[in-house]
Amino acid sequence: MKAFVHENLFKLDGDIPVVRAIPYGIQHILAMFVANLAPILIVGAAAGLADDQLGMLVQSAMLIAGIGTLIQLFPLWRVGSGLPIVMGISFTFVTVLVGIAATYGYNVAIGAIIVGGIIEGVLGLFAKYWRRIISPIVAAVVVTSIGFSLLGVGASSFGGGSGAADFGSPQNLLLGTISLVSCLVFQVLAKGKTKQLSVLFGLVIGYACAVVAGAVDFSGFQSMELFALPQLMPFTPEFNLGAIVSVTLIFLVSATETIGDTSALTMVGLNREVKEKELSGSIACDGFVSSLSACFGCLPITSFSQNVGLVAMTKVVNRKAIATGAVIMILAAFLPVISVIFASLPEAVLGGCTIMMFGNIIVSGFQMIARAGFSQRNILIAALSLAVGIGFTQVSALFASFPELIQSVFAQNCVAVVFLVAVVANLVLPKDAGIEGATAMSERSTAEAAPSVDEDGDLATA
User: Fold this and answer.
1) How many CB atoms lie under 10 A from the CB of residue 157?
2) What does the alpha-carbon distance between residue 112 and residue 108 come to, in Å, rounded to a whole number?
């Protein structure tokens, strides 16, 4: 066997044996596996999809995550960054897609994702012309609003799922509490990189308790096959203008997160600034692969910050090593047993684990605001956008006099309102607004913002 030079793990194109690469690929899968599948279960439940449909979508989520990661690692034309970025199903879209799926149906959500993904992909190819308008403070308040918007989703799952006959029952509350406490205990007691597995630990403990309590539906296992192909176009896309506009706005929000993740990865993993070509390819991959994801009935895809944190901790940036993880994800997509297990997961268990993840997104947003700097201008942008975005959407009747299209996009979508207000404020307010406080820092583009890594090596972004 070829000699293994350990230092090649820390080189983008270092030559390493496949056998040596596999453990590092598996490590990246474990860091993102649960977060990759959770959005599917949440939106699918809101859409009223059957267990077999959820299982099929979980298969598709693994397939798309693997394909998206490979394209990031090894670009096709100008799509892909060429960087060790791990892709997965995005939580950013959960709130808006839950609303669309519940109101118009899952087919409309799929149609909106296809169109929105193509738009983001095209914008990604021309990112150098527009990305400077997304300043660090804009990205920070958007991430914060995403966290706040997901809290209701997590609480609903904690109670057993919106519309469930036993919503808020003692059994659901107990299962959610057991899962949450298990996550917290593991997070406190685990050391180093094993902390990445706290959510997975909570799901395992919660699932075991749900089995004992008789809360798991095993019907999906009865007709399970050992091997199955993911289905292409399982849902016929339907196109609704309001849904398309709403989802496209969130794609712009997702692009700001991708800019941050890509920039952070080059700094913590490669010790250099990100290149324009890499940013453009990364955003284009986000968009075009999201459209491909919708063709398999799945949700939009994006870069995963927890995996950037893993790179920051291990310094392993070898593309071959991370590609082994992507290939394993693709192979897992053809094994229905994984899909059936996750589809049978009670919502209360999922809610107990994910509500902590959503809280972490809010804290990450606060950290990003701190890094952007507490100038008077930044404070004004953050205060205005969060107050209007979160406040107005809690009283949706304020939008009653607006056209139906505006209502469908903004009335119950705080992330879209926060994003719009923050961008406008960032463009309108004078750049030389007074700076206050010793901690104030000059505004920089998201691509230039230094990442924050905590003592365990986790990247402090959402």
Assistant:
1) 28
2) 6
